[in-house]
Amino acid sequence: MYLHKFRKWAYEGLNLKKQAEDLNISVWQSPGFLFIVMGLIIIAAMWGIYFALKNYDSPNVLVISESSVVVMFLTIGSFVISSIEQVARANKMKTEFVSIASHQLKTPIAEINWQIELLLSKFPGGLSEKQQLLIGQIAHSSQKMARLVDDLLDVARIDQGRLALAKEEVDLCTLVNEAIINQRPFSIVSGVELKSSCPVTSSKILVDKKRIGVVLDNLLSNAIKYTERQGVVEVFMETKESSVQVCIRDNGVGIPRNEQSDIFKKFFRSNNSLKNNADGTGLGLYIAKNIIEQSGGKLWFQSIENIGSEFFFSLPTVKS
Ligand code: ADP
């Protein structure tokens, strides 16, 4: 296991082209390249000092050599730091841009949704079946846009470390039941059976109810989305000494083993989602993991391709 981790670390560290592409910089600016150059220079400098001392054995030579090594290190160090700073600045600007753009998009999308609702409720008789169908499709697309904008805003808040949680005491079982009710229509349309069981004991937690609702909606909708018709999605809850654990199990397409380490990365979508043409952005799990961790809990999963997946999260319970 450690050997595998080391190989992965070495592969990622030495894959300079990928690093450069990920950070949108040239290869010679990539941290891995700079690290290698620094290492080579240090080795060369050490050899230089060694030979200088061997041949001249003079304190002056030693002082000069050491000073040059220090100057070299400082120069390279400042170059590395300025490159990293450049990347960090670009990243910050990107997050700010996403945040501003999403805020600006929120109002017009809300207006479109509101006007569609008005159109459908005020003139249902005056619209032909075809017109109602088309307006329904517009409404669906606009709701998708609204969800994407909400997700982008949440991602920007997470990246800027300002995802605020309005914590209150709630029963997790109630939240699970609400999420099941929300997802029931989707499971019926998808032909997937949705089951749940809550423990008899109370599971009071101190969380932001709306955000835990988002986590449950994401995990449940994923389980349904990535399960073929006639499949089953089950939700289990287990109370432990000082925490409560939720498991969302499906017998769907599963996640390929080689992609499992990327699953919580922003915008990552596994091959299975592309093969099954499932709608999505690759942001749901990133947001869910951050919400759970910021609420003092943990989120993890296990999955076998073509067998199914289990997503778990646990949250600390309130002492009564
Ligand atoms: P998406 O909007 O694509 O569903 P998520 O962040 O929620 O984004 O999930 C990231 C990826 O993880 C998905 O694209 C899918 O490939 C995979 N995934 C998530 N949940 C499941 C699941 N229950 N079964 C199989 N694959 C899943």
Short description:
By secondary structure, the chain is of the alpha+beta class. It contains 9 helices and 7 strands; from the N terminus they run αααααβαββαββααββ. The chain folds into 2 domains: 163 residues, no CATH class; 150 residues, Histidine kinase-like ATPase, C-terminal domain (Heat Shock Protein 90, 2-Layer Sandwich).
What does this structure look like?
61% of the residues lie in helices and 14% in strands. It is of the alpha+beta class and 320 residues long. The strands form two sheets. Strands 2-4-5-7-6 form a five-stranded mixed sheet. It has a two-stranded antiparallel ribbon with strand order 1-3. A hairpin with a 3-residue loop joins β6 (298-304) and β7 (308-316). The model has no long low-confidence stretch (mean pLDDT 86). Residues 218, 222-223, 226, 250, 252-255, 263, 268-270, 272-273, 280-286, 309 line the site of adenosine-5'-diphosphate.
